[in-house]
Amino acid sequence: MEIPEEVLAHIFSYLSVKERDNASTVCKKWNQSMSHPQVWCYTDVRCESGEQEDPALLRFSSLLPLVRHLQITVSPLSDPANRRAALSVLHLSASGSLRSLSLSCSGDVPLFYSGQDLLEGLEVALIASPEHVGGAFLSHLDLRGVPFTLSQSVVIGVARQCPNLKSLLVNNQTLVCNVGPVAVLEVLGLCPFLCSLGLFYVSLSQAVVDELLLPQRCPLLVMELYCERSAKYTPPLEDHVWAKLKQRHPRLKVNLILDHTLPMERFDSVLQPSVPLQRLELLTFTDLVQQTRCVARSYSHTLETIILQTTSSPELDAALCCLAAACSLLREVHCYCVVSHDVIRAFKDGCPFLWRYTLKTRKEPHPWRCTVLKVPRQSSPRL
């Protein structure tokens, strides 16, 4: 009972909303501490009860404007009550000084469902007015977890309501990309402080690159790109373009996902040597020996994480050993096919910063669990 309120608040901040509700009934002191702003700074809300008015959320509705970093998960997405609960949480939280928002969904997507209710609710919640602060303070928006197509009008509308955005992630890995280069150009104009971008590869163009190269733009730090089947219809960014981007933004780190729907002959055109590649995911179950050797040659000074879905072979084992010898900065390696013991030894011996890996010498039941060697120095549950 002598624990200071600030310490209690810090502890309570790690609890889910339901757990906070339970803890608030323990005693008067805990109940009073639950209204401390630090408890609600980081809040993860799971809308999964099937009730629009969840009892725990109702009791804490007056405290939701204290949330600064909000993550909402709708599970299952097919239940309209869960979606309405998510919009209610979003509306209340956005009435305060919300700094970051992450929206994700799980479960099967209802037939012919386009996410219209969630997308419209998002726009409404972010409308700024004297009574409703909305998106005026929002600096981070992550929509990678929504399983429906994002329209250009929604993305532009959100950017218009949130001029202080520093991070916008709309690379949500759906089958269709409706956010084209024209929309990206408008977003860049509306949000001059953007330093982290998550896009489909087809959302890039020479005009977008020219905008990013302007001397008055703030430094670009992170670019996430999702490459899928539609990338085969657009010209790839050539190596000299990436060289210019790297020169203009020397701290830029690029994360690439190459989906199995992208034809293999397009892989090499996307993996240009001058890309400052930090994370690479090659999500295909075809042979990737040539691509693995290319990665070892081109990204030995930048690559920190690699994820491979490929087929086993002695040639792949040899390529992975070369990768381990070349890329000493690797922190994570996840290869979803059987490899030899030599591959594991190569990564453990050649990559001093390696903290976890998924490398199996025999098949195991799905899902494969990774091996953790050590806790990363800059790990945090808040990120």
Mean pLDDT: 90
Sheet with the most strands? 13 strands, mixed
* Overall 3D form: globular
Structural class: alpha/beta
Function: Substrate-recognition component of the SCF (SKP1-CUL1-F-box protein)-type E3 ubiquitin ligase complex.
InterPro entries: F-box-like_dom_sf, F-box_dom, LRR_dom_sf
Subunit structure: Directly interacts with SKP1 and CUL1.
Protein name: F-box/LRR-repeat protein 8
Structural features, described:
Directly interacts with SKP1 and CUL1. This is F-box/LRR-repeat protein 8. InterPro entries: F-box-like_dom_sf, F-box_dom, LRR_dom_sf. Keywords: Ubl conjugation pathway. Residues 1-43 form the F-box domain. This protein is of the alpha/beta class and 383 residues long. Helices cover 34% and strands 19% of the residues. It is built from 15 helices and 13 strands. The protein has helices at 5-12, 17-23, 28-33, 37-40, 55-59, 80-94, 116-125, 152-161, 181-190, 206-213, 239-248, 267-270, 289-298, 314-326, 341-350; strands at 42-47, 69-74, 100-105, 140-145, 167-169, 196-200, 222-227, 253-259, 277-283, 305-309, 332-338, 356-360, 371-372. The protein has a 13-stranded mixed β-sheet with strand order 1-2-3-4-5-6-7-8-9-10-11-12-13. Helix 9 (181-190) links the parallel strand 5 (167-169) and strand 6 (196-200). The longest helix has 15 residues, at 80-94. The chain is globular and about 65 Å long. Mean pLDDT is 90; it is low at 379-383.
